[in-house]
């Protein structure tokens, strides 16, 4: 028997500022759905999610939530007013005794529940909002960019958590690896229409290209038909005027159909301006280290960067990635060691905090007010790669329309701010690019283009990112900072780093849960495994340790003999969570044993 949908949208229409975002949109979210919501920046993904959550009311149509179904919405900018600490906010609405749910989420997402709200960063506030949603465990979760401000370890924790949940969820994310692992269906917003495919994000790009190819073929056939009918009209209409008025009207209808077709949005016309060629040696760091107070940021470290290198810096938030890059570029002096910069360096920096953007300026002022881009004597032009260009024309290259030129920067979405920052960056000549989290908020198409541009760039690239897929596509070297002050250099991108780290013995013992197996066999014992199996074998001990810790907390919570009689619903919820984790632990241990046996063959 078919189950009723958790959520139904029927004939939804919504208009902002005269332009329709959706017209006649209908879709269902089924129990247990794991849906990727994808589309270009500005296509309406976040707006559609707010409609689903009930925060935006459509002009027409119905939004129906099944009776008794609970929903949770991951807010981009959560309101924490009225709460003293992040933990107080995250625990709000939980039943007494369920605080452990927030504690588990806080540990996995890496924020301090005791942190005062007044001193919390934007990233910490978002992590607290995500913990609040996960602790409440709604039957339908609406997650808008949940991986923003998470480091790679926290993203892995969230992946594991969502992979085990029975709840349905709709997910917006720029992180392709995250989407590929978690989703089983895809909603694609394209020019106001929403298409659904019963395949996860893994198949999205092939589906998109096939859809566009079919669309182009149909448009080509329509154009040929219009051309043929127009030729007939010119050559024979005077002799057959009375008998063929229907055919004339049909030609007008064809032309109307063709003109009403909405053109696909193009990709941004981005291009980096490679400046003068730098010397072959870009940076040579020898024995550099850094300590802040009693925290060791970097133990003595050597690194040589050559012209054309693409180096990714990875590690947990706070491990010192940005500090290391500042030392390598001469912005910050190391406590010990030396940094020698090469000749003819022209450095351009992409700042993840968007600090170069003044929210009170207009987009026009943001470009023309930059001394490096200003054209002498012209208030309406900017200097782009050595040539003057009208500011509106340059903004159009980055997919901004005429009306946005005089809009304040604060009105832009996260993806639009990233594009504006790229517009400023790409106008300047450079031969060393420092990219600190450039992928946040960018859509898949722009990420693809940025990846290609970085590949074609003549200079050197230093990249800080938590986007594993992007690192794999761009980096030829990875510097891993594990948070203990040690930095290790690996050849290749993220996947190569993961494969190699299992073959490198740590200098100090690594503490793991007592019963968690340790995947530390040498390379020779792993040759029977595929790359995916080796990666999985490395990840399983951490997953097993996490499940054991959660089982211990749940068992302690259920040890109260009065819990069943005083709070039966809470007891049932905890029992279900315990049985799910016990089953997941058994599966993980069995999988680890099978892979170990295969590796030993």
Automatic annotation (TrEMBL):
<dbReference type="InterPro" id="IPR017871">
    <property type="entry name" value="ABC_transporter-like_CS"/>
</dbReference>
<dbReference type="InterPro" id="IPR032524">
    <property type="entry name" value="ABC_tran_C"/>
</dbReference>
<protein>
    <submittedName>
        <fullName>ATP-binding cassette domain-containing protein</fullName>
    </submittedName>
</protein>
<dbReference type="InterPro" id="IPR003439">
    <property type="entry name" value="ABC_transporter-like_ATP-bd"/>
</dbReference>
<feature type="domain" description="ABC transporter">
    <location>
        <begin position="7"/>
        <end position="216"/>
    </location>
</feature>
<feature type="coiled-coil region">
    <location>
        <begin position="571"/>
        <end position="598"/>
    </location>
</feature>
<dbReference type="GO" id="GO:0005524">
    <property type="term" value="F:ATP binding"/>
</dbReference>
<feature type="domain" description="ABC transporter">
    <location>
        <begin position="283"/>
        <end position="517"/>
    </location>
</feature>
<keyword id="KW-0547">Nucleotide-binding</keyword>
<comment type="similarity">
    <text>Belongs to the ABC transporter superfamily. ABCF family. Uup subfamily.</text>
</comment>
<keyword id="KW-0067">ATP-binding</keyword>
<dbReference type="GO" id="GO:0016887">
    <property type="term" value="F:ATP hydrolysis activity"/>
</dbReference>
<dbReference type="InterPro" id="IPR003593">
    <property type="entry name" value="AAA+_ATPase"/>
</dbReference>
<dbReference type="InterPro" id="IPR051309">
    <property type="entry name" value="ABCF_ATPase"/>
</dbReference>
<dbReference type="Pfam" id="PF16326">
    <property type="entry name" value="ABC_tran_CTD"/>
</dbReference>
<dbReference type="Pfam" id="PF00005">
    <property type="entry name" value="ABC_tran"/>
</dbReference>
<keyword id="KW-0175">Coiled coil</keyword>
<dbReference type="InterPro" id="IPR037118">
    <property type="entry name" value="Val-tRNA_synth_C_sf"/>
</dbReference>
<dbReference type="GO" id="GO:0003677">
    <property type="term" value="F:DNA binding"/>
</dbReference>
<dbReference type="InterPro" id="IPR027417">
    <property type="entry name" value="P-loop_NTPase"/>
</dbReference>
């Amino acid at each position: 028997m078919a189950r009723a949908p958790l959520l139904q949208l029927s004939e939804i229409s919504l208009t902002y500022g005269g332009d329709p975002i959706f017209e006649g949109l209908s879709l269902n979210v089924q129990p247990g759905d794991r849906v990727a919501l994808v589309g270009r920046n500005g296509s309406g993904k976040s707006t559609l999610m707010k409609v689903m959550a009930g925060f935006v009311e459509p002009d027409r149509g119905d939004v129906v939530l099944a009776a008794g179904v609970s929903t949770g919405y991951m807010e981009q900018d959560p309101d924490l007013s009225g709460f003293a600490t992040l933990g107080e906010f995250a625990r709000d609405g939980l039943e007494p005794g369920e605080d452990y749910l927030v504690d588990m989420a806080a540990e996995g997402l890496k924020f301090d529940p005791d942190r005062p709200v007044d001193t919390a960063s934007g990233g910490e506030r978002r992590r607290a909002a995500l913990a609040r949603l996960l602790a409440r465990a709604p039957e339908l979760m609406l997650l808008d960019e949940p991986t923003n401000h998470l480091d790679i370890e926290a993203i892995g924790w969230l992946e594991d958590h969502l992979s085990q949940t029975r709840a349905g969820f709709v997910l917006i994310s720029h992180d392709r690896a995250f989407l590929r692992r978690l989703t089983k269906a895809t909603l694609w917003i394209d020019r106001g229409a929403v298409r659904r495919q019963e395949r996860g994000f893994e198949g999205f790009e092939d589906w998109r290209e096939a859809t566009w190819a079919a669309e182009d073929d149909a448009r080509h056939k329509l154009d040929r038909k219009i051309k043929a009918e127009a030729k007939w009209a010119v050559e024979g209409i005077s002799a057959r005027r009375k008998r063929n008025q229907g055919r004339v009207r049909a030609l007008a209808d064809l032309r109307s159909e063709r003109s009403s077709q909405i053109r696909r949005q193009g990709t941004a016309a981005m291009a980096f301006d490679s400046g003068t060629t730098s010397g072959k040696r870009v940076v040579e760091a020898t024995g550099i280290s850094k300590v802040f107070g009693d925290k060791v940021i970097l133990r003595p470290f050597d690194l040589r960067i050559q012209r054309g290198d693409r180096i990714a810096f990875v590690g947990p938030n706070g491990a010192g990635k940005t500090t290391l890059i500042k030392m390598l570029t001469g912005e910050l002096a190391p406590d010990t060691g030396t940094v020698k910069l090469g000749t003819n360096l022209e450095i351009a920096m992409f700042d993840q905090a968007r600090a170069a953007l003044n929210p009170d300026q207009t987009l026009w002022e943001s470009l023309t007010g930059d001394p490096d881009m200003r054209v002498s004597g012209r208030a309406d032009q900017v200097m782009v790669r050595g040539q003057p260009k009208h500011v509106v024309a340059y903004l159009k290259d980055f997919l901004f329309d005429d009306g946005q030129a005089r809009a304040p920067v604060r009105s832009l979405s996260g993806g639009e701010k990233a594009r504006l920052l790229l517009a400023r960056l790409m106008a300047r000549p450079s031969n060393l690019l420092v990219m600190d989290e450039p992928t946040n908020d960018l859509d898949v198409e722009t990420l693809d283009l940025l990846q290609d541009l970085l590949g074609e760039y003549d200079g050197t690239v230093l990249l800080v990112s938590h986007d594993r897929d992007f690192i794999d596509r761009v980096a030829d070297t990875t510097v891993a900072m594990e948070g203990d002050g040690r930095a290790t250099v690996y050849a290749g991108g993220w996947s190569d780093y993961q494969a190699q780290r299992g073959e490198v013995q740590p200098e100090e013992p690594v503490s793991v849960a007592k019963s968690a197996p340790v995947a530390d066999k040498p390379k020779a014992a792993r040759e029977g495994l595929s790359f995916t199996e080796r990666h999985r074998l490395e990840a399983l001990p951490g997953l097993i340790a996490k499940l054991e810790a959660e089982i211990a907390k749940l068992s302690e919570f259920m040890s109260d003999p009065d819990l069943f009689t005083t709070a039966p619903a809470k007891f049932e919820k905890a029992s279900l969570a315990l049985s799910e984790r016990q089953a997941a632990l058994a599966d993980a241990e069995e999988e680890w044993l099978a892979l170990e046996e295969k590796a030993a063959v």
